[in-house]
Each structure stands twice: as C-alpha cells, then as structure tokens.
Amino acid sequence: MALLNILHFPDPRLRTVAKAVVEFDENLRQLVSDMFETMYEAPGIGLAATQVDRHIRLLVMDVSDGRNQPLCLINPQIISSDGDEEMDEGCLSVPGYYEKVRRAEYIRVRAQNEFGDTREFAARGLEAVCIQHEMDHLEGKLFVDYLSALKRNRIRNKLIKAQKQQAD
Ligand code: NI
C-alpha cells in the first residue's frame, strides 16, 4: 500500500485525456488499492487516476457516511441521464474551494470493476454528481471549468501562490 501524490490545479497533466484500461492485472489492482488509500486519507469522496498522474480510465469513490462503500469504476460510460441539479463541489486537485456546479440528477452507468467484470447501475444525487465529476477528470476536465473565467483565474492564482509558499 502506498499514498500517491495528488496533482493540483493548474498542473497541465490534469488536462490529459485518459486511455481505456485493457489489462486487468495485479498492477491495476495495486493502483486501485493505492488510490482508495489515498482518497480515504486525503480525505475525499472520489479520486480519478488522472489526479495521481496515471492516465487510464479508472476512478474510485465512496460517498457513504460510514466510508465503507468503496466503488471502483473502470472504463465508465454514462448511458443515459435525466434531470438536473446544482450542488457544491470540491476537488482534491483544487484544495480549499467549493463552488456550485449544475449536473444531471439521475444517470445510468456502465463500468467494469478491477477484475474486468461489467455491470450497469443507476445513480442519483451525490453519487451521480461524484461519478460525473470524476469522469470529467478522465477527459482532462475540472469542476472549475464550469465557473466564470474570472472565478477560475482567481482560484488558479491563489493555488499557484499557495504552491509557491509550500515550495519555499
Ligand atoms: Ni476532482
């Protein structure tokens, strides 16, 4: 087990489009396990492989109150969506900032698990929002992209400043 380094906005590596997972081997399962450890430790409710500089279509999440319902989605696809809702979102790659983002309220998802088995399920509310947020990461997209340029640049500049201070 190992904690992974999480990339912070505006790191250009967060803009990478992830490739499909084709090999479901021990290396993949080790990465899944390390990503869960990193996510729980942060703590966060979701983490995409992009955020730990691994550019494959893999995300982990757990939106349960007890932090005991781990969900690993590989090569996820949204096959239908309905409704819309606005929720405050944050991101481990944009630490300290929470902003409202509008997304689909109900989604139907098809994804594989770490053994390559495919399943389909419905999600709503926070779970649906989290899946959409993490899937955006796999496309190189961040929640701040939904904000105005003014707001996004303000967050960007503050994070750059914070990263410089940490490096000093
Ligand atoms: Ni995020």
- Number of E strands: 7
Question: Which sequence of SSEs, written as H and E, runs from N to C?
Answer: HEEEEEEEHH
> What is the share of helical residues?
25-40%
What proportion strand?
25-35%
**Major sheet: arrangement of strands:** 1-2-3-6-7
Silhouette = globular
Number of helices: 3
User: In angstroms, what is the radius of gyration?
Assistant: 16 Å
Average pLDDT, rounded to a whole number, is 97
Low-confidence stretches: none
Largest beta sheet, briefly? 5 strands, antiparallel
List cofactors, ions and other ligands: nickel (II) ion
- Tell me the span between the first and last alpha carbons: 30 Å
Query: How does the helix and strand content classify structurally?
Result: alpha+beta
Q: Could you walk me through the main structural features you see in this protein, from its secondary elements to its overall organization?
A:
The chain has 168 residues and is an alpha+beta fold. Helix content is 29%, strand content 26%. The chain contains three helices and seven strands, in the order αβββββββαα. It has a five-stranded antiparallel β-sheet. Strands 4-5 form a two-stranded antiparallel ribbon. The longest helix is centred in the C-terminal third of the chain and has 19 residues. It is globular, with a radius of gyration of 16 Å. It starts with 25 loop residues before the first helix and ends with a helix. The model has no long low-confidence stretch (mean pLDDT 97). The site of nickel (II) ion has 5 residues, from α2.
